[in-house]
Amino acid sequence: MSRILVAGGAGYAGSHACLHLAEAGHEPVVFDNFSTGWREAVQFGPMIEGDLANPEDLAAAFAQVRPDGVMHFAARSLVAESMEMPEVYWRANVTGTLNLMEAAVKAGVGAVVFSSSAAVYGETSLALIGEDAPVVPSNPYGSSKLAAEALIRDVCRRYGIACGVFRYFNIAGADEQARIGEWHRPETHLIPLVVQVALGQRQEICVYGADYPTPDGTCVRDYLHVTDLAQAHVIGMDRLLAGKGDFTLNLGSGRGWSVREVIDHVRQVTGHPVPERLNGRRAGDPARLVCDGARACGVLDWQPQHAELARMIADAWRWAQTSGFSR
Ligand SMILES: NC(=O)c1ccc[n+]([C@@H]2O[C@H](COP(=O)([O-])OP(=O)(O)OC[C@H]3O[C@@H](n4cnc5c(N)ncnc54)[C@H](O)[C@@H]3O)[C@@H](O)[C@H]2O)c1
């Protein structure tokens, strides 16, 4: 059993990682400032309230927890906001990560797993995006993630800390028992937005552009079930703590779904109408972003188990209907 400090463990991805760490016999300890996370999502281990911006909070947390490893999910992650406030994103995502790494070094942590993003690749026209694709972020969110990756690798190399970087595409779905799920504030992700329309909480879903060079003209994205993502994190952390080598891996399903396909799946799964409104393209939305996930499957000896879009939507729907987070 290992004790893992989970920075951002009250958020969407982090809370599912805590669930699967606990199920694997590890002890997750959440470190979170609840800026976008939820106290109700902390169900699988203790919690320490603190902010990556405050080195004292981190020093106290590491002294109390003495973790074997760190998972780092805490970030600001709204692309449009990052265009408006780049300096805020660099401070939160880079300086915050530097503070975390300095505390991890002082505490003698053995391994760090970092949540990076496909945003590091920018606007590519590649049919499938592998880890060797050029990294050319097209917004400050992506730049700050790329810089945080580099700083984590440098610090880990110097101090002998095992280091794993995961670049996610889009995460979707929820715990199948609906104990936790996706609830961002504000919500910007397509599947929860469409589910909210099906629930009658929103009037319509906006489709931004239907003239892309894709089969139905709408943008195509890769979705990975959050349970698969969480399990990859547990395997990755175990691998690092066992000294099996550092990694930088894409996490995705390797399958693209268009905006229209997502909306149609929500109609089918929920049986509810989903009115849509067609708007013009949004600046900076590439036509297609699909992950080449082969390397992660090989390195981790892992396969997504819930790769069907209908399954992700069914779990998101169950969660949206039954969840009790303070809304
Ligand atoms: N959701 C996605 O589809 C997606 C895709 C690619 C990458 N990512 C990355 O995965 C990570 C998790 O994403 P998510 O969707 O779970 O986000 P989230 O907003 O649900 O979770 C982030 C958590 O970090 C906490 N946090 C933020 N700043 C903090 C700080 N300064 N100190 C302490 N805690 C802080 C928040 O309160 C929240 O609990 C992020 O780093 C994000 O960039 C997410």
Topology at a glance:
Layout: E1 3-7, H1 12-23, E2 27-32, E3 47-49, H2 55-65, E4 69-72, H3 79-84, H4 86-106, E5 111-117, H5 140-159, E6 162-168, E7 170-172, H6 190-198, E8 205-208, E9 220-225, H7 226-241, E10 247-251, E11 256-258, H8 259-270, E12 276-279, E13 288-289, H9 294-300, H10 309-322
Parallel strand pairs: 1-2, 1-4, 2-3, 4-5, 5-6, 6-10, 7-9, 8-12, 9-13
Antiparallel strand pairs: 9-11
This protein binds nicotinamide-adenine-dinucleotide (NAD).
Nicotinamide-adenine-dinucleotide is lined by residues 8, 10-14, 32-37, 51-53, 73-75, 77, 92, 96, 115, 117, 168, 170-171, 184.
Which ions and ligands are bound to the chains?
nicotinamide-adenine-dinucleotide
Mean pLDDT across every amino acid position: 96
Task: Name the strands of the widest sheet in spatial order.
Answer: 3-2-1-4-5-6-10
Whole-number total of structural domains = 2
Q: Might you state the CATH topology name of the largest domain?
A: Rossmann fold
What helical percentage do the residues reach? Answer: 25-40%
Describe this structure in words.
With 327 residues, the chain is of the alpha/beta class. 39% of the residues lie in helices and 18% in strands. The protein has helices at residues 12-23, 55-65, 79-84, 86-106, 140-159, 190-198, 226-241, 259-270, 294-300, 309-322, and strands at 3-7, 27-32, 47-49, 69-72, 111-117, 162-168, 170-172, 205-208, 220-225, 247-251, 256-258, 276-279, 288-289. It is globular. The structure holds nicotinamide-adenine-dinucleotide. Nicotinamide-adenine-dinucleotide binds at residues 8, 10-14, 32-37, 51-53, 73-75, 77, 92, 96, 115, 117, 168, 170-171, 184.
